[in-house]
Specification:
alpha/beta; 40% helix; globular
Length: 483
């Protein structure tokens, strides 16, 4: 039983729920609430399912709606039910939370939450077809152990062909399949960065990359991005002066700013990295998502002559986050060393997921074309809503990717994120994309939700933004942090 339980179904589960007769008989609503709590406690009623509407359950139990209303109210008071006006009520346990995109614990009652903390799309319709085809391919792998530390050959060849089509000749021996792009980054850091090593990153940059670097106790220096992208002399100067062990860069539609690094700077960065002995980790998560006919420069790896460039990418942004498939492109010896490191982590990626990825990549042209049209429409809807409701915010229109980097009308990013949560919008405030708590004037806004949801989200954000300036506003409670 998942999703929603109907009134007649819940009535069967409740059985003989009525209060027992006697001098100290409890009210019927209390008996009903107690029986629901018992069902949750012993697992017969799952967590996270929507209960029937009050009227529907009252009719199924042949009792008054007032009794059901009182029972639901008591369940909410005891923490066994979470409700949102106009949307319904869902089962939970007292104190029951889940991990949100912010890395914080958040309640389960967010079924109607507009999540702008995640810069990823829903699955394309072709995913189901690819999954069915993958199950037909699976039997030829069942005779073996199923461990492929570098990935199955069909997928490595497909990824290598995609690099070749972009002008970077690549063999399957240069590809290692991972369980997502974040996993790819983690493995590269384990291989290329000793604990406490020095790393240069852009500022702002991808928060989960910063988390991975923190896990290696890296000494991080930053190159601040300007309104129009990288300052070549400052970036190259940072490389030459700090001489980091490693630099992590996102040249294609940088996350979160959406900037695209020009070809000339790519070539100079590779030359400077070689001169100072720095390895470059190039995150290509958004490389397939240019919009408005934008032409992509050659891959950074095109300029590499000394195996200084390690590229990482994956299926999450273009296809689906639930398909945990990523990859590393490096020299063949580096791939073999990565495989040796991986054995101590997770052995191999799931074969079935890899087969799904093979079929999706075979249909990439059609999927990519549809995604670009979809994202352009959603981006324009978001830009239009911002211009109408929050005209004082400044946004540079990105030429690709899935995110806007908005400069707000004041240093209120974190406060705005807390306030927006209360009206059903989850945001990733600017300080999450840096190291030192700065960037309170900025906010990342993905355009991965449907256009209507984006317009609704901006409306809610605008309302709470204006409320922030009012005096006497109650103090926002702090969320609990995962320890």
């Amino acid at each position: 039983m998942t999703g929603q339980v109907r009134g007649i179904q819940l009535a069967r589960l409740l059985g003989q729920w009525h209060a027992l007769p006697g001098r100290r008989r409890s009210p019927d609503y209390a008996a009903l609430a107690g029986t629901v709590r018992g069902l949750l406690a012993d697992g017969r009623l799952p967590l996270g399912v929507r209960l029937p509407a009050e009227r529907e359950l009252a009719e199924a139990l042949r009792i008054s709606r007032t009794t059901v209303t009182a029972a639901y109210r008591q369940l909410r008071e005891t923490g066994h039910l979470a409700s949102r006006r106009g949307a319904g009520s869902w089962t939970m346990l007292p104190g029951n939370h889940r991990v949100a995109s912010t890395g914080l614990w958040t309640p389960l009652d967010d079924r109607e939450m507009l999540d702008l903390g995640v810069a990823a799309l829903a699955a394309p319709p072709q995913l189901l077809t690819a999954a069915r085809a993958a199950t037909e391919d699976l039997p030829r792998y069942l005779g073996g152990a199923g461990y492929h530390p570098t990935g199955i050959i069909e997928l490595r060849e497909a990824v290598a062909d995609a690099y070749a089509a972009r002008g970077l000749p690549t063999s399957a021996d240069q590809i290692m399949v991972t369980s997502g792009t974040q996993h790819a980054l983690d493995l590269v850091l384990r291989l290329a960065l000793a604990p406490g090593g020095s790393v240069l990153v852009e500022s702002p940059t991808y928060p989960n990359a910063l988390a991975a670097l923190a896990g290696r106790r890296a000494r991080i220096t930053t190159h601040g991005l300007a309104a129009d992208g990288w300052e070549p002399d400052l970036l190259l100067g940072s490389l030459r002066q700090t001489r980091p062990n490693l630099a992590y860069l996102i040249p294609e539609f940088q996350n979160p700013t959406g900037h695209l690094m020009p070809a000339a700077l790519r070539e100079r960065v590779v030359a400077a990295a070689h001169a100072v002995g720095t390895d470059l980790v190039i995150d290509e998560s958004f490389v397939d998502l240019p919009l408005d006919g934008t032409e992509l420069p050659p891959p950074v790896g095109v300029y590499d002559r000394h195996s200084r460039v390690i590229s990482i990418g994956g299926m999450s942004k273009l296809y689906w986050g639930g398909l945990r498939i990523g990859w590393v492109r490096a020299s063949a010896p580096q791939v073999q060393r990565l495989a040796a490191v991986r054995v101590g982590v997770d052995m191999a990626s799931p074969v079935l997921d890899q087969l799904v990825a093979v079929h999706l990549l075979a249909d990439a042209d059609a999927i990519v074309a549809e995604r670009r049209v979809q994202l352009a429409v959603q981006r324009d809807a978001l830009l239009g809503a911002l211009a109408q409701r929050l005209p004082d915010w400044r946004v540079t229109v990105p030429r690709g990717g899935v995110t806007l980097w908005a400069e707000l009308d004041g240093p209120v990013s974190s406060a705005l994120a807390r306030a927006a949560e209360e009206v059903g919008v989850r945001l990733a405030p600017g300080p999450r994309f840096g190291l030192d708590g700065t960037m309170e004037r900025f906010l990342r806004l993905p355009f991965t939700l449907p256009a209507a949801d984006l317009v609704e989200a901006v409306g809610r954000i605008a309302a709470v933004r204006y409320d922030l300036d009012r005096t006497g506003r109650r103090r926002w409670r702090e969320p609990a942090v995962i320890a």
